[in-house]
TrEMBL record:
<dbReference type="InterPro" id="IPR023610">
    <property type="entry name" value="PInositol-4/5-P-5/4-kinase"/>
</dbReference>
<keyword id="KW-0808">Transferase</keyword>
<dbReference type="InterPro" id="IPR003409">
    <property type="entry name" value="MORN"/>
</dbReference>
<keyword id="KW-0418">Kinase</keyword>
<dbReference type="GO" id="GO:0005524">
    <property type="term" value="F:ATP binding"/>
</dbReference>
<dbReference type="InterPro" id="IPR027484">
    <property type="entry name" value="PInositol-4-P-5-kinase_N"/>
</dbReference>
<dbReference type="GO" id="GO:0016308">
    <property type="term" value="F:1-phosphatidylinositol-4-phosphate 5-kinase activity"/>
</dbReference>
<protein>
    <recommendedName>
        <fullName>1-phosphatidylinositol-4-phosphate 5-kinase</fullName>
        <ecNumber>2.7.1.68</ecNumber>
    </recommendedName>
</protein>
<dbReference type="GO" id="GO:0046854">
    <property type="term" value="P:phosphatidylinositol phosphate biosynthetic process"/>
</dbReference>
<dbReference type="InterPro" id="IPR027483">
    <property type="entry name" value="PInositol-4-P-4/5-kinase_C_sf"/>
</dbReference>
<dbReference type="GO" id="GO:0005886">
    <property type="term" value="C:plasma membrane"/>
</dbReference>
<dbReference type="InterPro" id="IPR002498">
    <property type="entry name" value="PInositol-4-P-4/5-kinase_core"/>
</dbReference>
<feature type="domain" description="PIPK">
    <location>
        <begin position="273"/>
        <end position="667"/>
    </location>
</feature>
<keyword id="KW-0677">Repeat</keyword>
<dbReference type="Pfam" id="PF01504">
    <property type="entry name" value="PIP5K"/>
</dbReference>
<keyword id="KW-0067">ATP-binding</keyword>
<keyword id="KW-0547">Nucleotide-binding</keyword>
């Protein structure tokens, strides 16, 4: 639902005058038309607004925003008739989809929320409580389900809680578990595994932490099969009472075939030099996630952040009371601050079963060579969601030292651009060296193909790729001096970006961190690619600009999101992900002159070279380097050879200021 607010800076805006109602028709420069009451330079009273793309709102306005009773219609045939508040669907209303399905009930911030009834096109019906567009229902026998439905049957992600305290949290299909999930008993024991429709399951049983050894023996039969677990309610029982589906078409609309998209990295298979290390990592993470999942969720305390809050576990090949048998040599596994990272995974909406399945499932990890000078090895899961990086002991110390501040920062700022950390671990093979890992989110996990990627620091010394043009492809990480674009952001996103960059840099500066980067991924789109991906052609055309976004009233749905979001096909834009922008070619004043050393920036828009409509992904990475003695020596040594302002190794305060200045030159507000 687009935010219904009159744009003060719209090309069709009229000079403000003394409040006075009139009902004149007012065509706007972009093709939109408004007819109705007008006061103080904005719609007031009753009015009708017709967008050039066919959308229409007719109803009550207050101070330039839809407020009161009204009707909104989409070109697809979908309509909403009901109450609006501050430009959004809020209150009571009826939504009719293009397929004839109707929902009549409560709305909050454009979402079904509260009590409502939905008639599905296939004849299914649900009446009850809704929460953020999903049904929440409870059977008469006390069983409760919270999650997704399809065609009247539990399907998708959801949690079923039995009246006796048993609980299943995972994926469903046709009313039964199918896919990854966690089954938890009231005593705290749990089974983490993968279910099939035929009733088969493979996974690992974890006893309660308080009585690991005795519980393992007494429950061994229960852990060997899911037969002992209560059978999930049949699809028949799930049909009428706790309700039909929120229809979601999750079909991917990629404009390229999988074969065309080159996945970076080398598959780690048997015989690979790091094959056993990967097995150790998978075994360890499976153990860690299962162990913490068996414990009740509780509030964090200061001791949870203690650097000494780490646990060693021995993994003999034959297995033990708490570890499974395996094929690799014996190793030891260390977990750092496990309860904190459990909370972080929950905060970042990472499902435990999905997390474990992505890293520890049958699909092997892919190994990537490091694009930097650290020598770190990167591992990527097959679904591209998670990245595992080998790190130095000093980096682990930095992360654990600042973990409490980091946790507070990401809790306070949900739009933070700093790296999302999901876990810190260490593997120690018998007779071998310790290998420390950090698990984090992959910025470029998206349905969009990443055509270009840049690692940007705001410095210039050594900041160019060592590859010749013929060797550069989509997996090449380019650097500051390789950048030949400036990015035009819509006003709302531009302001949000500068605000969040300031907050994140203040946090990193306070922790003494420097040498971090802004990792930027660019997806280029044109009329042809956008149409094939199911995006409205209006958005792919050069007419698209930040002025259209300004009508959203600040942060509402973008026009090209509306229908796709209603269909559940595409995630919403958020800061740093799925962000629409315009990339304009820029010309350098000097081939070797860095952006940050010129008054207005050495990248100046080049009108003759044109621009591209793009989707941007970006975030701040490499945030575990403090300004230690080695960096101070590096700064002193390089300062004798080159301009001190051009090198990366500078004190955190200067680094933060230079980095923010750099961002303000590469990203600019769209005035189109």
């Amino acid at each position: 639902m687009r935010g219904l607010a009159w744009p003060d800076d719209h090309p069709g805006s009229f000079p403000k005058r003394e409040p006075a109602e009139d009902a004149a028709e007012r065509p706007l420069a972009n093709g939109d038309v408004y007819r109705g009451g007008f006061a103080g330079g904005a719609p007031q009273g009753r009015g009708k607004y017709v967008w050039a793309d066919g959308c229409m709102y007719e109803g009550e306005w207050r101070r330039g925003k839809a407020a009161g009773k009204g009707r909104f219609s989409w070109p697809s045939g979908a309509t909403f008739e009901g109450e609006f508040r501050s430009g959004r669907m809020e209150g009571f209303g009826t939504f009719t989809g293009p397929d004839g399905a109707t929902y009549r009930g409560a709305w909050v911030a454009d979402r079904k929320h509260g009590y409502g009834a939905k008639h599905y096109a296939n004849g299914d019906y649900y009446e009850g409580t809704w929460r953020r567009n999903a049904q929440e229902g409870q059977w008469r026998n006390g069983n409760q389900y919270i999650g997704e439905w399809r065609a009247g049957v539990i399907s998708g992600r959801g949690v079923l809680i039995w009246a006796n305290g048993n609980r299943y949290d995972g994926l469903w299909e046709g009313g039964v578990p199918k896919g990854s999930g966690v089954f938890t008993w009231p005593d705290g024991s749990c089974y983490v595994g993968t279910w099939s429709r035929a009733g088969g399951v493979c996974g690992t049983f974890y006893p309660p932490a308080a009585a690991a050894s005795s519980a393992l023996s007494s429950n061994r039969k229960r852990s060997s099969s899911v037969d002992a677990a209560p059978a999930p309610p049949s699809s028949t029982l799930l049909r009428a009472r706790c309700s039909p589906a929120l229809q979601r078409t999750r079909s991917s609309r990629f404009w390229f075939s999988p074969a065309e998209s080159k996945k970076p990295g080398q598959m780690i298979s048997k015989g690979h030099r790091n094959y056993e290390l990967m097995l150790n990592l998978q075994l360890g993470i499976s153990y860690s996630v299962g162990k913490t999942a068996s414990l009740p969720m509780r509030e964090l305390t200061l001791p949870d952040f203690d650097p000494r809050e780490k646990f060693w576990t021995r993994f003999p090949p034959e297995g033990s009371k708490v570890t499974p048998p395996h094929q690799s040599p014996e190793f030891r596994w260390k977990d750092y601050c496990p309860m904190v990272f459990r909370h972080l995974r929950k905060l970042f909406s990472v499902d435990p079963a999905d997390y474990m399945l992505a890293i520890c499932g049958n699909d092997a990890l892919r190994e990537l060579s490091s694009p930097g000078k650290s020598g770190s090895i990167f591992y990527l899961t097959q679904d591209d969601r998670f990245m595992i990086k080998t790190v130095k002991k000093s980096e682990v110390k930095v992360l654990i030292r600042m973990l409490h501040s980091y946790y507070q920062h990401v809790c306070r700022y949900h739009n933070t651009l700093v790296t999302k950390f999901y876990g810190v671990h260490c593997v120690k093979p018998i007779g071998g060296q310790k290998v420390r890992f950090i698990v984090m989110g992959n910025l470029f996990c998206s349905e969009y193909r990443i055509h270009r990627r840049f690692d940007l620091k705001g410095s210039s010394h050594g900041r160019t790729t060592d590859k010749v043009d013929g060797e550069i492809d989509e997996t090449t990480t380019l650097k500051d001096l390789d950048l030949d674009f400036v990015f035009h952001l819509q006003r709302y996103w531009y302001k949000k970006l500068l605000e969040q960059i300031t907050r994140d840099c203040e946090f990193l500066e306070s922790e003494g961190i420097m040498d971090y980067s802004l990792l930027v991924g660019i997806h280029f789109r044109d009329d042809n690619s956008a149409t094939k991906m199911g995006l409205p052609s209006a958005i792919a055309s050069p007419k698209f600009s930040g002025k259209r976004e300004s009508f959203q009233g600040g942060g509402g749905f973008f026009e090209y999101d509306i229908d796709r979001v209603l269909d559940g096909q595409k995630p919403m834009s958020r800061l740093g992900a799925n962000m629409p922008a315009r990339a304009e070619h820029a010309s350098r004043r000097s081939e070797f002159e860095p952006l940050v050393l010129t008054g207005g920036g050495f990248l100046t828009p080049n009108q003759s070279s044109g621009s591209h409509e793009v989707i941007l992904f970006f975030g701040i990475i490499d945030i575990l380097q403090d300004y230690d003695i080695s960096k101070k020596l590096e700064h002193a040594y390089k300062s004798l050879q080159v301009d001190p302002n051009s090198i990366s190794a500078v004190d955190p305060k200067l680094y933060s200021r230079r980095f923010q200045d750099f961002i303000g030159r590469v990203f600019i507000e769209d005035d189109g």
